[in-house]
Design brief:
single chain, 192 residues, alpha/beta, three-stranded parallel beta sheet, 33% helix, 24% strand, globular
Length: 192
Amino acid sequence: AKLFAQRLVTELKGERIGFILFAGNAYLQMPLTTDYAAAQLFIKSASTKMAPTQGTAIVDAVDLAERSFEQDNKHHKALVVISDGENHDSEALARVTEARENGLLTFTVGVGTARGDYIPVNAGGRIDQKRDASGNPVISKLNADMLRQLAQAGTGAYHNLTQEEEILVDLRKGIEQIEKRELEQRSFTEFE
């Protein structure tokens, strides 16, 4: 997912890009910018330890994404959700539909397999599996149906991460169709 996100940043040069990590809550890591080197740096340094509560709070991620855009902006917004789709929030579809009415297109990229696998964690210097409250290992599974429904509600598209080249082309086409507007950005360089 991190390698794909890095390629996506390269593919979307010319667009403003922001970065939100989400698990049990959503965290803005980088506001909208054209600083692609910073975006690459934030993606490279991302880890599961940056989200103290686990889960898949897609509603929080959509809320934070909407707040990250200018409030008067109703036509120039897209959100790419990279997730296993194991949503623990029943309001996600309604929230993505509401965001679409406010002009936010939602694209989804599925990570993982339908069969699922254990979640590795570092426990005291050794690799173990994440465990639930009863001590049983937790298995994370791809919920492609949920991600498809989210993309449909957000008038975007769903792709599986295994189709990386197709995703990049399709996302570029989808984002190119969004009405554009001019922005001015000033940057300063100081020398000693």
